[in-house]
């Protein structure tokens, strides 16, 4: 039987090092396909697989998974970029629904009620500040609104929902997503140490995460590191916040005078609510709850690994300076203001 022909491989040039000949040879070796059981496999695919398996173990926390993904993206690159990009959104949604099986509806209502005023004020405040800051920086209206919505509501999910309503171009979507994902990565590492340094309670930290961290994945990841109660508060408040995608998308269509656009509804949030209600009112499901929650936490860890693996140096550089300035400005203001209010009122 004839062996399959190996596809041609032209790996990118490696970074300059003191021993460039050795580095070049090693780099090319990891990118060159080799036949394994009749299938072409590259070394970096093996590395990706090993890291993926490690993320399934108890030793891989969400920050560790994100760091591993980032390290892979900056060195060997993600060999399955298109597959992980397609899987990330679904995996996050299933993981969030799974977390619902570990929550009590009564406690969630109390947490959501506590975060309602923070949510309303912070969303409208962020969108208003973003509008004026974007004009000051000379950014386009669509990019400014996308970054503002991502900061105000729920990161990449909000951008993905509002983008089609704006009829935003691909490059405008990429700039907004790149800005939000980079700041998400920073927040996941920075928030837990800040919370411990300020001796924040579980409820305070969970509420702060839900308001001040953009994407649901990083909110849940940071809160999970801090504690179970913080995780419950953060998840509930963040998902209640994510429902604001709907009115903000409708408002966007009216303000930007877009007709005939389709509003993207985050239906997975209703799955989370259903799981929470089942866990609260169907005692027969209680033995299954811990298993589903454990699987959901593993799914979240894998989600953050995939997100990190997608943040290549090229992606980071392509955003440019001014969108980062806008993103950092909005993030610093909402983080500082919400932190001050939470520490003095909650």
TrEMBL record:
<feature type="transmembrane region" description="Helical">
    <location>
        <begin position="146"/>
        <end position="167"/>
    </location>
</feature>
<keyword id="KW-0472">Membrane</keyword>
<protein>
    <submittedName>
        <fullName>Integral membrane protein (TIGR00698 family)</fullName>
    </submittedName>
</protein>
<feature type="transmembrane region" description="Helical">
    <location>
        <begin position="173"/>
        <end position="193"/>
    </location>
</feature>
<comment type="similarity">
    <text>Belongs to the UPF0324 family.</text>
</comment>
<feature type="transmembrane region" description="Helical">
    <location>
        <begin position="115"/>
        <end position="134"/>
    </location>
</feature>
<keyword id="KW-0812">Transmembrane</keyword>
<feature type="transmembrane region" description="Helical">
    <location>
        <begin position="239"/>
        <end position="256"/>
    </location>
</feature>
<keyword id="KW-1133">Transmembrane helix</keyword>
<feature type="transmembrane region" description="Helical">
    <location>
        <begin position="46"/>
        <end position="70"/>
    </location>
</feature>
<feature type="transmembrane region" description="Helical">
    <location>
        <begin position="323"/>
        <end position="343"/>
    </location>
</feature>
<feature type="transmembrane region" description="Helical">
    <location>
        <begin position="91"/>
        <end position="109"/>
    </location>
</feature>
<dbReference type="Pfam" id="PF03601">
    <property type="entry name" value="Cons_hypoth698"/>
</dbReference>
<keyword id="KW-1003">Cell membrane</keyword>
<feature type="transmembrane region" description="Helical">
    <location>
        <begin position="265"/>
        <end position="282"/>
    </location>
</feature>
<feature type="transmembrane region" description="Helical">
    <location>
        <begin position="205"/>
        <end position="227"/>
    </location>
</feature>
<feature type="transmembrane region" description="Helical">
    <location>
        <begin position="288"/>
        <end position="311"/>
    </location>
</feature>
<dbReference type="InterPro" id="IPR018383">
    <property type="entry name" value="UPF0324_pro"/>
</dbReference>
């Amino acid at each position: 039987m004839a062996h399959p022909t190996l596809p041609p491989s032209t790996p990118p040039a490696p970074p300059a090092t003191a021993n460039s000949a050795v580095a070049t040879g090693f780099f090319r070796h990891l990118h060159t396909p080799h036949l394994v059981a009749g299938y072409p496999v590259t070394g970096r695919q093996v590395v990706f697989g090993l890291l993926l398996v490690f993320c399934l173990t108890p030793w891989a926390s969400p920050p560790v998974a994100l760091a591993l993904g980032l390290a892979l993206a900056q060195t060997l690159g993600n060999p399955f970029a298109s597959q992980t990009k397609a899987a990330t959104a679904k995996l996050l949604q299933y993981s969030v629904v799974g977390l619902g099986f570990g929550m009590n509806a009564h406690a969630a209502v109390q947490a959501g009620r506590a975060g309602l005023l923070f949510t309303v004020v912070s969303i409208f405040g962020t969108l208003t500040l973003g509008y004026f800051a974007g004009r000051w920086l000379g950014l386009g209206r669509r990019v400014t609104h996308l970054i503002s919505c991502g900061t105000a509501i729920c990161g990449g999910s909000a951008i993905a929902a509002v983008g089609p309503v704006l009829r935003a171009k691909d490059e405008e979507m990429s700039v907004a997503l790149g800005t939000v994902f980079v700041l998400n990565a920073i927040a996941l590492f920075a928030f837990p140490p800040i919370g411990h340094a300020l001796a924040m309670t579980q409820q305070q930290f969970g509420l702060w995460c839900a308001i001040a961290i953009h994407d649901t994945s990083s909110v849940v990841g940071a809160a999970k590191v801090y504690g179970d109660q913080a995780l419950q508060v953060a998840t509930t408040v963040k998902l209640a916040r994510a429902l604001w995608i709907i009115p903000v998308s409708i408002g966007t269509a009216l303000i930007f005078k877009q007709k005939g656009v389709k509003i993207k509804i985050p239906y997975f949030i209703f799955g989370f609510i259903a799981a929470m209600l089942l866990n609260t009112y169907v005692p027969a499901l209680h033995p299954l709850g811990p298993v589903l929650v454990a699987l959901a936490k593993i799914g979240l860890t894998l989600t953050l690994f995939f997100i990190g693996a997608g943040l290549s140096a090229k992606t980071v550089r392509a955003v440019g300076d001014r969108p980062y300035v806008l993103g950092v400005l909005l993030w610093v203001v909402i983080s500082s203001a919400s932190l001050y209010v939470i520490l003095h009122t909650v």
